[in-house]
Amino acid sequence: MHDKAADEVLIAGGGPAGAALAMLLHRAGRRVTLVGRARDYRAIEGISRRSLQALTGLGLRRAAACAVGPLPRRVTWGGEARAPNAEWLLPRPAFDAALLADLRGAGIPVIEARIRALASDGDRVRLSLADGRVLTAPWGVEARGRAAARRQFLDAAPWSTPAWILRGEAQNLPPDSTPASAALSLPGGGWAWWSRLGGQQYLQLALPEATLRRARRAPDAWLATRPELAERWGDAPIQHHYQRPSLVGRTRVREGRLWRLGDAAMAIDPLSGQGIFNALSSAHGLAPVMNSLLEGRPIAPLERFHQRRQDAQYWRFARAGRDFYRQAAYHAAMSGEPLSYWRARCHWPDHRPLHLPEPWERVRVARGLAILGPRLVERERVVTPDQPLGIQAVAGVPLAPLVSAMQADDHEAAQALLIAAGPAAAGIIRWWADHPDWPTLPSVSSAAFEPSSDSASQ
User: pLDDT digit string (tens) for 247-262?
Assistant: First the structure.
């Protein structure tokens, strides 16, 4: 038995969620050990620009360097073809191995081993390895994906047909052929994401259950009957095909001394294409909670804040997926196609709009926990119907003083706050303009600021 008593946190899982949390806690001065292994099967995954920037910002530069792009994100959905933004492709397991190399380069202990069990045991967590070693620490994090949490899921989606993955060579193309990807809804129900990278191609399918059963009996023959897919795949034989769980659900964020992270805490519909973004966002949410906890803060308000934040993200992702399914269902109905696949997905989780109106009279300033750097702190936040957890800052500048000034009709104070914001004022003004019911901000000379990010934070 080996007791890592010097550690404060043990992280099980070396994917993007576990790696991001390890890096964030390490930067905050915490003693962390990560246990995990790089995936041993070849796959391709797509990420957005902000996910790539987040990887770089975390210091996961080897992992970010694996990304190939930018490529146009081509989407054909509900009969409409478009390329709304850019996408980068990640080859796995090279990406997973690079994550572990980044952690080691930062001085974080990494143990590459198979995990047999992870559990909360009294005042510690116990992580048992296949080679007989047992690691313990005051706190543990489960970051081994949705399969590790399938028995704990709450509010799961009412469907659970597994994803079907096809892999093969990009035949008659050199290994350095142009990378590409495409997402599309399928006639008769279902959707697909195809990608080509480094002489290989990868196809992820979500199909009606009956279609999946037929397709698995003769994959090459079935693929040849789907012109929208066969055109991209070409004549190459399918080298490997397998099913992967696609359960959708959320969990309680903590069980005793064990916290849940990434897909092990909140597994979203793969349709969103936001898997790695969700993993990184989950780490950014849990890191200040754990850091504040290790500084001696009471656990109840920290856990409550993190649970509310996770649940709000879960329902937002669920509603976004629902709206995509509705778009496909409308096109199917207009085309006379079967609706059963889409109909089952058009009404979950509810009929609430993805974004609620934010009338000015319902905007208020309230004090509560907010993420500020590596910890949670009490701050004034701006609470709206669409953002019930509150917004602490926009473009890195606290928002509450500006809202309070405008609510008091003190335009002179509001103008002074914008001038004091300097270059960030441009981002604040752009963000404010997206709320048409809010009063107009006082004018500020363009010489007072330069363009900046307009992101809001809790």
Answer: 899 999 999 999 999 9
Q: What pTM does this model have?
A: 0.91
How far is 420 from 433, CA to CA, in rounded Å? Answer: 19
| C-alpha dihedral sign at 120, 125, 127, 128 | negative
Which tokens sit at 371?
């993420």
User: What pLDDT digit, counting tens, does each position of 392-405 carry?
Assistant: 999 999 999 999 99
pLDDT for res 176 = 55
Instruction: For the chain, state the CA radius of gyration.
Output: 24
Query: ∠ at Cα 453 (447, 458), nearest 5°?
Result: 125
- The H or E element spanning position 370 is strand 364-372
Query: What's the per-residue H, E or C state across 28-90?
Result: CCCCEEEECCCCCCCEEEEECHHHHHHHHHCCCHHHHHCCEEEEECEEEECCEEECCCEEEEE
Instruction: Show Cβ contacts of residue 414 under 8 Å, excluding neighbours closer than 6 positions.
Output: 402, 405, 406, 441, 442
Which of 302, 263, 47, 54 is CA-nearest to residue 141?
Answer: 263
Alpha carbon distance 22, 34 (integer Å) = 7
